[in-house]
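Q: What would this complex look like in 3D?
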Amino acid sequence: MSRDHTILTPKVLEKISHLREHFPVEALTIPLLHAIQDEHGYVSREAISESAAHLGLPLAKVLKVATFYTIFNQEPKGKLHLQVCTNIACWLNGANDLVAHLEQRLGIKAGETTTDGKFSLSRVECLAACGTAPAMQVNDTYVENLSKAKLDDLIDKWSKSECCGICDGDGDGGGEEEKA
Amino acid sequence: MKKVFTEAAANSKDYQALTEVLTHKTPEAVITEVKKSNLRGRGGAGFPTGVKWSFMPNNEVAPVKYLVCNADEGEPGTFKDRFIINQMPHKLIEGMIISGYAIGAKVGYIYIRGEFRKEAEFLQTAINKAYSDGWLGKNILGKNFTFDLFLYRGAGAYICGEETALLNSLEGKRGEPRLKPPYPAQVGAFSKPSCVNNVETLANIPWIMLHGGEAFAKLGTEKSGGTRLYSMSGHLQHPGIYEFSPTLTLREAIQEAGGVRGGKKLKAVIPGGASAPMLRADEIDVCIDFDSLASVGSMAGSGGIIVMDETTCIVEAALVLLKFYAHESCGQCSQCREGSPWLSRIFQRIENGQGKLADLELIEDLCKNMAMQTICAFSDAVTGPALSSIHKFKEEFIQHIESGACPLKNHQAKRV
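A: Here is my prediction, written as structure tokens for the whole assembly.
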């Protein structure tokens, strides 16, 4: 049995099926990598090889794309990936203090994952949420108007619950109501 | 004052302008009206939209052409396109259909930044609705006009806001800007002539069609028509999206947003997104249009106004931006790939109190070698915060260097 079935599952391939008739095959690279990350949480070297084989593209082409874009995680991340913006508007509103606070609360440095695999913490560049700074993105969901107290509440909530409370379908990052 | 966006959503029915255009206007008439409107690109470059459209080859020479919407919104301090997508997605879709009709494109792409996951889902739902209501697809309104619209998600790269990098990314490649010429109007997406316009630019089109180019032109300055959406952020009492006439001054815009919060004094303003050179507090009696801001050595750019109060360390503010550029340089050109992190290291050592006075000359020299030397304007943009900070706040740099420490380290405005 081909290993295609463990990474490029029917569910993954289904996500790009609507694009096939409208886009040349090379243009499917980014949508396919998105679909892989949605399903598996990251884009492994093996996933890159299999994507290249599936699309009939040279490995180098897919590898250089996968490693260019920051959204594609090259290694597994925690269930909740806290991506705190530290660019100018968030920095002016105390984002560095928030990162330090999260590092202390979670016992990890930015760029690391907790040993239980629940939280990853990253510093990211501008999320286009400057009017509601400081902001972060947790997996796909924006959480805005952050404060230490708000972060503490969220971490408490997330630590207790089995479910991350923010994953597919729920979208309750606690900041949705404040969307611009 | 009339407003395009904050009133448009409530006052005009979606697809009313499209109906008007398809019933009464030729593509040439649409382009003429947009030229009359003095609409200029809202992504940051401020290029006249009607002129950009007229660069597109005609249907005989080029039967297949594309319209591409730049929804990569990545310029730090800018969040207006996200506002349009969330508040009035159909204005964007309608604007794209009309624009496609004008330039003879039967296919449009919206390239949306990867982080905008919810926005992409929301926009896709709106596109699906437009299809099911007959505004997209074959023979729209029974006319001989077909327009299909596809959404394409980016994956986290600031440089993809540059139009040719965006086109490469849309083709499934690394987002590396292309050498020009050929320009996208000759060789664009998938090697076909393409026109790339920003979200806000396109979302203005329905209003222009309903009210006329002259009415739109009157809302702005002599050379730049229409109101604009300004993203106001930083140390403001009421940050957010504001629709202003560009005849307003920067001081008035800041007052509209409640002024500097907490009774603090204003220190500096970045008037047009991260790449725009900073202005001092005594330089804000200038209008917020493209030409006025250019005349004082800055730029209106993407309309992102970032306000910094007296507690802000300018060395560190510039450092934050330079680290960003160092992270986002695509790496094609050595001036930018090497220069951006180098500048960032120099600013870091000055901030740490380990800088030398000679570093200020080194910054000037480096910037001279970075500007106007590369494939795209990224490298020029890097020099914006670097040079404006050392020129306008020189004493603060010297203070860092001579005292061996950041004088403002423990005085930064605390909010959290």
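A: To summarize the key features: The domain at 80-178 of chain A is CATH 3.40.30.10 (Glutaredoxin). Helices of chain A lie at 4-7, 10-17, 29-40, 45-55, 59-66, 88-92, 95-106, 148-160.
Q: Very helpful, thank you.
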